[in-house]
Structure formats: structure tokens, C-alpha cells
Input
Amino acid sequence: MKNYILLLVTGFVLTCSSCKKILDVEPKQSISAEGALSSITGIQGLLTNVYSNLQASGNFGRDIIIKSEVLSDNCRITVSNSNRFVGEYNNTLRTHFVEYSSFYPIINKCNLILDNVDQASDGTPAQKATIKGQALFLRALLYFTLANEYGYNPKHTPGSFDLGVPIILKGVSSVTEVTYPSRSKVSEVYIQIEKDLDGAIAILTNPNGLTAKTIIGKAAAQALRSRVALYNEEWQSAINNATEAINANVGTFVATATVAGYSSIFNQKNSPESIFEINFDISESLGSNSLQSIYQRLGNSSTSSSGYGDVVPSNSLLNAYEKGDIRKTAMLVPVTKSGESIFWVQKYPGSGGSYGLDNVRMIRVSEMYLTRAEAYSRSGQDGKAQDDVNKIRLRAGLAPTTATGATLLNVILNERRIELAYEGDRWFDLVRRGANIVKDNGTLLFSTDVRILSYIPQGQLDINPNLLQNPGY
Output
């Protein structure tokens, strides 16, 4: 029971004791859910804390992105390494994503916001709608990530196993409110994700200025809705929402077909292409636990004592680049590490002006073009699919494709792999298509392999007798 309360109730209590905006509502020794969530200031403080939870190195600040690359066929671990992510690269049983325990406290905060925002004693309707829309997006993002880590894609469920994760939609702030839900079907989780995103789209607008990319707006919700639709094989919805996200101009496609032009997408604090990115201020640097650290050593120096440079592109990924692709030159620096010739990744180069301060680009406009291209291709609209994928190819210095049918689809999927490499897309992209995974180290994972799904921590199974473990564990 104590551990379960830690997952749900403590997530809120600790927030109240650490978030300055909430502490301003009541004296430090008398924080309560009722007091903190009765005003728009307290609710906004809790929302700010949810954003900060995304930054954690165990969440989107590093691990979710890195594990997607090394669990898949995109990246490998250098021979000389710090022993980080080695188990994931080898696809060792039970070495996988571990967000089950960490995400539910964050979901609980989203639920508390949604339970209380409309009843806040102050705040304008516009303020309340903005907070509500952001909380709906964040809850959808968290459930979407959990569904893809612990369940099969709804359209590619091997055999009869179709479970996702438990759906909890009401906030918990006391022991008496704790419940022990069973796992919902993954299709039901997707229905809830889409409902949350549709609700967010209906009430959000797009912010302006410096926060346009780091505060969730309507375009971000449309972009995530497009991604969800792609995974759920709802081609027209993927097309429509991608188009809306593109046309919002929150993220601007960088069309310059040069190394410098492509590098400009990633070497600025706020990427011109971002539709939504997780912001890191100077006091929030993850330092040696950052994406920059795991992809390179400081200054791309093999002798630097700052950083690890352990995760590098696989031979499979390197071979996927076509001759003349400027992305390879722009994003990969050749170095020698302990006698091994490797490439260090430049998508997180310290663009915040200090070590480990890169914003994490969660959704880029280039992804929207690739999502729309795939949806067009799968719905038989080859001409439109060519137009979209060729924007990506031409910018990379490659010839436009004239392929059609299955060949065109393969071109699009390869472009998705290369364009979104090192950003945490690859594992989820392979699993959602039910594809087999072939790795440099000889590992072959069929779509039915037990190691495709993460395992639910035994502690959670002990606490909640209604939970069912994934097959094979």
C-alpha cells in the first residue's frame, strides 16, 4: 500500500513541497491539495511541475530517447564505454523502458489539474482553457508513451494478447481514493488518448514569442494527434492533423540544402522546426546525464573528461544513408575513441550555450511531412506522398524519388529512419508496424519476441492484484 501511495498521492505532495508557485499559495508548513488547487496560481504551479517532470534523465530528458535508439537497429554501444545502456543494446530480458512507475505520478498531477481547474476561484476562462488543454495533451503524451512501451500496436497485436495499461482519469490526493485498476485493452487506451487530444485541440490556441515552442499549443496537439493516428492506421486523420500542424507555422521547415542549413535545425536553443520542445534553463542542465553527454564528449574531443560518447550510429544506420546525404556530414563527426573509429552525434551539441542544455525536440515539422507522406502512400495517393517525402530528400541533397506503390513506401520509411534518427523514434516506429528488428550484434527480434514489450515491475504486480504481466516474463 505504501508503495502505491508513493506512485499516486506522493507525486502530488512532493510537488507541493518543491514547486515555488504552489508554495506561494499557503505557508510552507500547511500545504494541502484543497488549498494549492483552489487558485489558478496553484494549478499553474502544478502544471509547471509536470513540464519539469518531463525533463528528468529517466524520462524524455535522456532515457526514453536513448533506449529507443539502442533497443532498435539505429545505435550501438562503443567498445570502450561507461556501461550505460549496454543491457538495452543487447536486448537483455527485463532491460527495457521503465516508465510504468514514474509516469503514473505525473498522470495523477494532470488528473488533479483537470479535476480542479474549472472550479478555481480566480483566473479567466481563457487561462483555464489554456491550462486544461495543456494538461489534456500531457496526459495523452504520457499514456501514448506507456501504451507503446507496455503494449503492442492496436493494429499489430500478435495472437490474442491485446492489453495496454490501466487508465486512471481521476486525481488521487488521499489514501482513501486509491484504486487498483486492471489493464485496459490497448485499443481502449488509444481511444482515451485521441479523446484527450481532440479535447486539447478544441480549446487551445498557439502561443507567441519565446514560449511558442516550449508551451503546448494547438499545433502541438494536432501534431501529436497526427502521430497517434499514424500509429492507429487512421490515414485520413493523420493527413488532416499533420496538415493543420504544418499550416500553423509554429515550426518552419528549413529547406536550405547545405550542411550549415541542416545544422541550424539543431544548433539553436529553440529550433526553427520545432512544434513542441522541452525547455532546459541554465539551472536545469542534466550535465553528464544529458543527451549531449551520452552521444559525444564535450567539444567532440576523445580526450575530454566531460561526457561519455557511448551511443553511436550502428553500421546498419550508416549504410542506410545514400551517397551525398548532407545529414550524415552535418550530424556525424568522425572520431577515434580508445582506438575505435566511430561517429559522434551532433543533434544535441550544447545549443543552450552550456553543457547539457539542449532543448529536447519532441515534435518537428519534418516529422509531419513524413507522417503525411506515409499516410498518403498507404491510402494510394502516391503523387502527394512523393511531394512530401521529396521535401525531405531535396533538403538532404538527394534526388527526388519517382517511385510508386510499395517501393515509394519503403523510400518514405527509410527517410523517416534517417531524418528522425537519434531523436527516439526508431524503436516505436518498428514496433508499431510489427516489423522484425535486425541488429549489428547479431540480435534478431521477431515481432512476437517477448523482448518487444517492457515488463511491468514486480512491485506493482505485488501491490495491485488486478494487474497482468506481459507474456514471457
